[in-house]
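ok so i was messing around last nite and threw this chain in just to see what happens. nothing serious, just curious
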Amino acid sequence: MKRKYLRSLGIVLTVVYVGISIPLLLNSTRFDTSRDSLHNHVSHFTASPPVPQQVTFSGQHIAMDRYDYRERMDRELMSFTYMHSSTLLSLKRANRYFPVIEPILKANGIPDDFKYLAVIESGLNHLAKSPAGAAGMWQFMQATGREYGLEVNANIDERYHLEKATRAACAYLKKSYEKYGNWLSVAAAYNAGQARISSQLEKQMADHAADLWLVEETSRYMFRLLAAKEVLSHPQRYGFMVRKEQLYPPLAYTTDTLTVGIANLAQYAQSKGITYAQLKDFNPWLRATSLMNKSRRTYVLKIPTQEGLYYDPQKTVPYHTEWVID
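result:
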């Protein structure tokens, strides 16, 4: 009798235990703010980057309180913030190329902020080429490059010559500013062409390109430029933590001025103590295995030094201190 009672009691207790446990087990995957921590349930966080109340581009103050401006800026900030590898590469390369680009912009009367145009055009990749055929850091098409004084042929393509292409870009930008008197409209014309921007300003009776209804690429282009400046000016605000040694330093080189051709660039490189690949990397405007020069033009080749070939990352100096966390 006692044994039967204990067995019945055990069954009752088991049922009660299961009745209590099942709801707890079923609810264990639900987040309870009084019981759980976010860190226990989320492997990583994705936050929306802050949109500034106002941005400044080339001396122009642009408020972000209007719905379309704010949301276009928000889209491009998210794009730059979460395309981690390309944004990090642009930041690292900026340490090498901004010291070259900035003085040329200044000497030609172009606002410093236009260095970010090279960022959105090519990611500061000196070998960049688009499917449409635009080439170099400033992404000139062949015809436009020639129009602005660049030599472009099968042997030489100065769209890949950073200094010359930057000066050509300055000439294009200056001509656009004479037409529009607004630097953001100048940026839009760099993407879409002056003819299209001029015609749309007239048809839509707008004062500047940011207020135009344009194809998505050009409409985004202006705000990509603003976002590039914002993120690269304040990388830590957008989650990019970079140390000094992770930046790419300017590479040391000497120059060789030539007024004659070079029959074999590989042999020439070997005579300078470097590889053919290194010669081409420092002079990407050389497009063939030889340098033809029947007209005896003057060309200046960059020859990397041993210091340039084997730099010490620990000695890298940041061009802008706000880029790094140390």
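not much to say yet. The longest strand covers residues 253-258.
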